[in-house]
């Protein structure tokens, strides 16, 4: 019996010798050699179950491996699934994690006429080593509680694995005995870390989620939705309490005054110094735990110094001759690296591999440049007039870049990434088209949203997944003096937006709450309940548009926050945007319908629907006049409309990958930029001539 990879198939079991699913027609041979032998997690309803499926697979030579399949089409889920693949691939020489080959990450296309929603044809897959051996939960059921010597050995192994993982800005979030494998040679392997399901649910939901952690092992801050690197240390401590006592943490008594585990009497075989260290790992306060993995390893060295001898006694110091040889080799490597670096800058032209996934795309205000950022941690800049790529590098950030904004004067732009350090940066767009790094903006969590103030971009607001919002002076290049104001918001921030007069900063979170913050005086001006999106008018600081979870779109007067006009979208809104002249609102609903509202004159919206089958995933106004707007559909087609809601043109993207972003060139509204899920970016001349309301 083998399984069909299609999560929407109604009967996934097939005979072993079948080449295609007997129910939905999907190929049963993955990458021309792998068959799905059995699921390693229960299969569930694809619309309500887990985002990740895990299978044991076998190739044509009989080698067993593990295949993870992401079945959600959510962009953030895709980014973090691919990020896990990248990290595991970069760690493929480390035996403490499952090994992934360089081509272990791939995409699988479901058949065009198969059983699946039309916008979910593509599955993201990760093929990795199948670890032989037992997990430590199974091992503990067959053995007694571990000794101090074994505990110190395993602690050091896991600390070294975490050191490599944390160094790449990834943390596990679900350390427990069941997620630690013991190979037959006695080496440990940490499995299921960084799994898109765990990391992404935290990112997407931005709050408490019972699926993110395992109760009894998770740190207090993690259960509040604010996991950090030190959360792994807490889970590591709880894991070793389980291994040393033979009892699950939840089964042990607690001290009533502190609510900490009363476990030491159940582990009489260990020393007080080791028990103190494990209690330090489990400290309720993040600050009381080891600062990082280096500090953790140093503490282990104090408790149990590593063996620095060989079988023949202490190793001698290197001789003078060996120092000369080592120095010569080091010198050669340095010269080689310098040569590569110099060549990188003097070689003619700029080449670049396709983007792994476009996170955001933006034209410079003068339309001279089009920039994209992507999950492969690369910034790409091209000239739209000749489609020439002038910049393609992985600058500054240590992880996938997720946000990009140009300043209103076009002289600067800012980027943000899913890094725990180096997570926001400011760049200069030089007159000759070159790009210079100006300065960092540091947070202690992923930066997920940013925006410039309207007046030449003097101020930059950044916001994190942990709710930290900061306003920076972009003209001050001293990190310690450039932070003008900071705010701790309640939960994951999805968007920030300045009012035209720069008086207010609107903050919206995944908890469906909005806050209007008078940031210069640090005053909370207005709390907006049940709000999922907001936008200030780009032409009049007086007006603020809000979209609430009940489907109502409102325009408020910011002088008193009274309601000016309301319309019922009759769907859950996912995005709103003012036209450049401020007269229209473009709204996208969860039903994939785009609606246009001339809010000062109309009490109803106009549905932008050229074909009843259209499902809109992205939209944009023409940047200067706002007289045209474009909507992109899941089937790869694009419709262009005027601002009265009159359909003008249909464009076929000729791409089976779904469109993720579109944008008009600010200086040439006849040109559209289109970014697709496969990372490609196209420039389309949608009209050759515009005369009044006529489009040719």
UniProtKB/TrEMBL annotation:
A GO MF term: ATP binding
Keywords in alphabetical order: Membrane, Repeat, Transmembrane, Transmembrane helix, WD repeat
CDD domains membership: STKc_PknB_like
Transmembrane segments: 324-343
Residue ranges constituting the Protein kinase domain according to the UniProt record: 40-303
PROSITE patterns: PROTEIN_KINASE_DOM (PS50011), PROTEIN_KINASE_ST (PS00108), WD_REPEATS_2 (PS50082), WD_REPEATS_REGION (PS50294)
Keyword set includes Transmembrane helix: yes
Pfam families from the UniProt entry: Pkinase, WD40
PANTHER family: POC1 CENTRIOLAR PROTEIN HOMOLOG, WD REPEAT-CONTAINING PROTEIN 55
Name the record gives this protein: Protein kinase domain-containing protein
Source organism per UniProt: Fischerella muscicola CCMEE 5323
Taxonomic path: Bacteria, Bacillati, Cyanobacteriota, Cyanophyceae, Nostocales
């Amino acid at each position: 019996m083998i399984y069909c990879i299609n999560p929407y198939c109604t009967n996934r079991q097939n005979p072993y010798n079948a080449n295609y699913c007997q129910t939905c027609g999907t190929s049963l041979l993955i990458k021309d050699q792998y068959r799905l032998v059995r699921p390693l997690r229960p299969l569930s309803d694809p619309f309500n179950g887990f985002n990740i499926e895990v299978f044991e697979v076998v190739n044509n030579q009989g080698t067993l491996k593990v295949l993870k399949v992401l079945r959600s089409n959510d962009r953030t889920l895709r980014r973090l699934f691919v990020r896990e693949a990248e990290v595991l691939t970069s760690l493929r020489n480390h035996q403490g994690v499952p090994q992934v080959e360089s081509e272990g990450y791939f995409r699988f296309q479901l058949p065009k006429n198969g059983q699946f929603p039309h916008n979910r044809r593509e599955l993201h897959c990760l093929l990795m080593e199948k670890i032989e051996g037992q997990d430590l939960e199974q091992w503990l059921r067959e053995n007694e509680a571990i000794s101090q010597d074994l505990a110190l050995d395993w602690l050091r192994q896991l600390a070294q694995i975490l050191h490599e993982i944390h160094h790449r800005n990834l943390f596990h979030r679900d350390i427990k005995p069941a997620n630690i494998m013991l190979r037959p040679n006695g080496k440990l392997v940490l499995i299921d870390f960084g799994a898109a399901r765990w990391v992404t649910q935290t990112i997407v939901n931005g709050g408490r989620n019972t699926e993110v952690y395992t109760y009894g092992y998770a740190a207090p801050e993690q259960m509040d939705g604010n996991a950090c690197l030190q959360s792994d240390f807490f889970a590591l401590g709880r894991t070793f309490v389980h291994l040393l006592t033979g009892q699950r943490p939840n089964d042990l008594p607690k001290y009533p005054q502190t609510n900490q585990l009363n476990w030491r009497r159940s582990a009489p075989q260990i020393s007080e110094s080791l028990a103190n260290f494990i209690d330090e790992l489990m400290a309720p306060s993040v600050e009381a735990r080891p600062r990082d993995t280096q500090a953790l390893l140093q503490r282990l060295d104090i408790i149990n110094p590593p063996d620095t001898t060989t079988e023949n006694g202490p190793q001698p110091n290197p001789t003078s001759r060996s120092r000369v040889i080592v120095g010569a080799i080091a010198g050669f490597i340095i010269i080689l690296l310098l040569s590569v670096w110099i060549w990188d800058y003097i070689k003619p032209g700029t080449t670049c591999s396709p983007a792994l996934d476009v996170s955001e795309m933006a034209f410079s205000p003068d339309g001279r440049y089009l920039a994209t950022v992507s999950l492969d941690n690369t910034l790409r800049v091209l000239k739209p007039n000749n489609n020439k790529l002038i910049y393609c590098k992985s600058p500054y950030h240590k992880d996938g870049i997720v946000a990009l904004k140009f300043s209103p004067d076009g002289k600067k732009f800012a980027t943000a990434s899913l890094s725990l350090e180096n997570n926001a940066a400011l760049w200069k767009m030089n007159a000759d088209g070159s790009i210079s790094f100006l300065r960092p903006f540091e947070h202690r969590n992923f930066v997920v949203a940013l925006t410039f103030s309207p007046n030449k971009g003097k101020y930059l607001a950044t916001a994190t997944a942990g709710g930290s919002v900061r306003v920076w002076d972009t003209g001050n290049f001293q990190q310690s003096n450039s932070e003008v104001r900071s705010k701790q918001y309640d939960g994951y921030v999805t968007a920030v937006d300045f009012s035209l007069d720069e008086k207010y900063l609107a903050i919206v979170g995944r908890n469906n709450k909005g806050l209007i913050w008078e940031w210069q005086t640090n005053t909370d001006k207005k709390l907006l309940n049940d709000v999922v999106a907001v936008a200030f008018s780009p032409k009049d600081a007086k007006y603020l548009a809000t979209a609430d979870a009940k489907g109502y779109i409102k325009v408020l007067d910011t002088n008193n926050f009274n309601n000016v006009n309301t319309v019922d979208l009759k769907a859950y809104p996912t995005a709103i945007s003012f036209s450049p002249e401020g007269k229209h609102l473009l709204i996208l609903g969860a039903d994939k319908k785009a609606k246009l509202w001339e809010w000062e004159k109309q009490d109803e919206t106009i549905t932008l629907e050229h074909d009843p089958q259209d499902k809109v995933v992205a939209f944009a106004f023409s940047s200067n006049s706002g007289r045209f707007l474009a909507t992109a559909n899941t089937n790869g087609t694009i419709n262009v409309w005027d601002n009265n809601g009159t359909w003008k043109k249909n464009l076929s993207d000729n791409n089976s990958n779904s469109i993720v972003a579109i944008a008009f060139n600010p200086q040439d509204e006849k040109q559209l930029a289109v970014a697709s899920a496969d990372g490609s970016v196209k420039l389309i001349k949608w009209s050759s001539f515009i005369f009044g309301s006529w489009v040719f």
